[in-house]
Amino acid sequence: MSNPSLDTFKSRATLTVGAREYDYFSLPQAEKNGLPEIASLPFSLKVLLENLLRNEDGRTVTDGDIQAMAAWLTDRSSDREIAFRPARVLMQDFTGVPAVVDLAAMRDAMASLGGDPERINPLVPVDLVIDHSVIVDDFGNPKAFAHNVDLEYQRNGERYRFLRWGQSAFHNFRVVPPGTGICHQVNLEYLSQTVWVNEDGERPVAYPDTLVGTDSHTTMVNGVSVLGWGVGGIEAEAVMLGQPISMLIPQVVGFRLTGKLREGITATDLVLTVTEMLRKKGVVGKFVEFYGPGLDHMVLEDRATIGNMAPEYGATCAIFPIDDETLRYLTHTGRDPERIALVEAYAKAQGMFRDAGAAEPVFSDTLSLDLDTVLPSIAGPKRPQDRVLLSEAKQKFASALETEFKKGNGNDLRVPVKGEDYDVGHGDVVIAAITSCTNTSNPYVMIGAGLLARNAAAKGLKVKPWVKTSLAPGSQVVGEYLNRSGLQPELDKLGFNLIGFGCTTCIGNSGPLPAPVSEAIAEGDLVAASVLSGNRNFEGRINPDVRANYLASPPLVVAYALAGSMKVDLATEPLGTGSDGQPVYLKDVWPSTTEIAEFVRANITSDLFRTKYADVFTGDEHWQTIEVEGGQTYAWTMGSTYVQNPPYFEGMGKEPEPVADIAGARVLGLFADSITTDHISPAGAIKTNSPAGEYLIEHQVRPADFNQYGTRRGNHEVMMRGTFANIRIKNQMVPGVEGGVTVHQPDGEIMPIYDAAMRYLADNVPLVVFAGKEYGTGSSRDWAAKGTRLLGVRAVIAESFERIHRSNLIGMGVLPLVFQDGQSWKSLGLDGSETVTISGISEGLKPRQTLEAEITFADGTVKVAPLLCRIDTLDELEYFNNGGILQYVLRRLAA
């Protein structure tokens, strides 16, 4: 890792653990040598401070940066920019494939600039877990798993060959093959070490395990006291190539927990409560750190569930300090005893170990929750922060049906399903999915679901025939303990057969509904529902046929599959009729906390983790038989519709061209509040009549073989055509119309956004996008920024940005700008027919500089709007001036 040339605060010390000695950078010694009272810092800031001490070089990290961390205690916030160097990078295949594509393209570009392609290699460890490509095509039968795996390899063979090449071509790069689990759960159960060790020097150096990941739910690992968060693929590539992450020293909000959860309350109920509270508090861009006596009663799996949801309440991370529970979990999951001893000794030596009797840390702000007050909850129908008490779910759905979905009339409409003896109506649950990293990593809710299924089956209950059921655990460990405990056969009885190991319904890989059900929904324009144990339920994400989506615990997913409708009050109405003819209520089948805990103790042991992770990088016979071609550089296939050499480096010189002002730009889109990266970035199914579908047909791809956008992220031609193409996105330039369309100016023709952008590009007309608040919330999707840039957008002007997307836009050379003085595009009266000129960019742009937009209306009226440049740091400015972060890194390496 790093052997700093400076140690201003004389913090380098030696730690002896057993028979081994480690170097480390001691916070107590730094406190004695000029950093007063740093023992009071939150755990998360101690991790950042250690990172600076270890990497002090007088250039990227100065003694002033380190002193600013101590000075944070005075104001509990800071505007100081620091350089953070994570220990490692985590990727999943949707975001990982384009990152490896970019690395391969950088090798080609390096050769073109006269440099050595071998210089393009990850400089920090990178793990890529293939988990985003399995789809719920088959379900509800014993052959579903094998069939879905076969389909996955048929569809993704080209991508997987490319990743196998990357695994052999790049150093410091490991691939966890398909069918192993979800990246966040594999990270939690195996990859993470809590304390990392670098063996490269004369003596091993111990330091906190830290990372960035190309998925926003990287924060799940905060539960095991690993500081990490999601970044765009662009930013992750820079970290891989040795660049630090530039960040402002964050505010840290302390979340104090007291009490313990009541009988029957799940981790999902807790996390939905926490999500709602933190959304209301306002923690966007801040660290959240949990503390207080409530941690004494909280298992690590519950902590990881809370950490996982950080993107849903907007926090950069949601971390828990190291304590006895951390050590228990590391032991329980089969970690090396020598490493566990190091974690304990290191944390205690650094003042990073939570001691129930110690003084509580200093925070920027605090809030608290008595765990005893948490009640059964779900969230929906469109956002994870919209918590609904289970006891009010029926009533709240009825209200949403009228207000959100405008279905006040025809509430009781039922549509016959062709060829079947049942009908469907508003609120019917057509998808019930136990899915996603959030909950399938938590054995308490998974065992709970299995026990509820057992109890329900014993009473003769069956899932309603219109429900598509699925079980997609986050790791093979889960599959093993469900089998070992005898609960998988019980889940099978209700149709919750294993369909794959990976992200499925939560990311939109729910697969198609049975055709007759889909046709009935379309015929009646029904508001069908899904219930999933996931973390995302944004509009248009789960399935194109399903408009109302609810997040729930795995046991409640099973319960709603039995009830079959959101119009059933699970608190007071029966789930169904038992084999004895009597009504069966949720309370009749809900397992006790004690029984769940007994099953966990009896069936989940450390040997189970050690066995399942012993050959985690080997893969099944499908993976092992993939042939690898290519050497130092990749042999691009011109006809490939999956992997193409992107155009980012075309015509690039060793020195960047001056950045020009934006003159006479046209408006590509006007968007309201809460436009997510799910709206912007290509995701889900590719429609035949879309620009991407037309491209694939032109390249002789049958619609049946389109696959989905996520699997084609290595082909910029497909992805740029799918940018802003979500079926539910609403461009306010075309009021009342959903989908990726715009108005081309000045002729006024309505057309797909991609087609309009290409017409503007041909005419050398720059583009801007206007948006409202929280633009770009959602997953850390690099293509939301890449696609924006490739469409010719020079600037996005919004009321506020989500952290990752703002960073990604800069990483692609797109300027993020924020309205000032309470203005918005609505208050300015824009309709999209205007032209926009933004000057001052070419005159030595500075971080957070105020610029002005001169907006000329169609009638010749001119308005001037002040804008804040949201390039926040000098490093970000360097990236922007180079046309993007990859160009910046490449030029530096080539020099």
CATH superfamily of the largest domain: Aconitase, domain 3
Which percent range describes the beta-strand content? 15-25%
* Count of discrete structural domains: 3
What is the CATH architecture term of the largest domain?
Answer: 2-Layer Sandwich
Number of helices: 31
Query: Strand pairing plus helix content: what structural class?
Result: alpha/beta
* Unreliable residue runs: none
Arrangement of strands in the largest sheet: 26-29-30-31-34-33-32
Counting DSSP E segments of at least 2 residues, the number of strands comes to: 34
Give a structural overview.
Strands 26-29-30-31-34-33-32 form a seven-stranded mixed beta barrel. It has a five-stranded parallel β-sheet with strand order 6-5-4-9-10, sandwiched between helices. With 895 residues, it is α/β, with parallel strands linked by helices. It folds into three domains: 88-373, 2-Layer Sandwich (Aconitase, domain 3); 382-604, Aconitase, domain 3; 662-681 and 726-894, Aconitase, domain 4 (Alpha-Beta Barrel). The chain is globular, with a radius of gyration of 27 Å. It is 34% helix and 18% strand. β4, α4 and β5 form a beta-alpha-beta unit. The longest helix has 26 residues, at 144-169. Belongs to the aconitase/IPM isomerase family.
Keywords:
Aconitase, domain 3, RNA binding, 31 helices, 4Fe-4S, five-stranded parallel β-sheet, seven-stranded mixed β-barrel, alpha/beta, Aconitase, domain 4, 18% strand, 895 residues, 3 domains
